[in-house]
Amino acid sequence: MWNYEKRLQFPVKITQPNAKLAQVIISQFGGPDGELAASMRYLSQRYSMPYNEVAGLLTDIGTEELAHMEMISAIVYQLTKDLSMDEIVASGFDKYYVDHTLALWPQSAGGVPFNACVFQSKGDAITDLTEDMAADGATS
After folding, report:
1. What is the pTM of this model?
2. Strand ranges inside 14-138, DSSP E
């Protein structure tokens, strides 16, 4: 279904670690309006879409959101790569570090783990598309 190119959609090259910034940006990975939720939203809703053209569009958008998730993951990874324990503690990143070290794990900036309850798939085209617009409007 997908043709995966082993490169980011847009290159990410961060040279200075910044754990405080990573703690905010991580919400765009696993927060309620983040890229993981967006991709799952579109890729789930496509199955019950009664219009083939719109179902195809939802597939395209969901795939695009996965590409965004890759870039956000690269940003968070690069912002936290090679942090010293002193930097981790001073930034407040130690709470995350205890459970995940410097690995990527989807959560909101407030530390709430990703949960499928943050997106909806109702099987009604108008309801689903309205939810999509509301969620995408929150991240614009």
Report:
1. 0.87
2. none
Tokens 């409007």 -> residue: 137
- In whole angstroms, what is the distance from residue 136 CA to residue 85 CA? 36
How many Cβ atoms from other residues are within 10 Å of residue 63's Cβ? Answer: 16
Cβ contact 66:42 at 8 Å:
no
Beta-bridged to residue 107, according to DSSP, are 113
Residue type, 133: M
Q: Which residues pair with 113 in a beta bridge?
A: 107
> What is the rounded average pLDDT for all residues in the chain?
92
Residue with tokens 């597939």: 59
List, in order, residues 6 or more apart from 88 with CB less than 8 Å away: 19, 94, 97
Residue 54, H or E segment: helix 52-80
Tokens 């997106």 appear where? 119
The one-letter amino acid code at 113 reads P
**pLDDT tens per residue across span 60-97:** 999 999 999 999 999 999 999 999 999 999 999 999 99
**Alpha carbon separation from 126 to 7, 52, 70, 93, 137 (Å, rounded):** 35, 15, 29, 41, 16
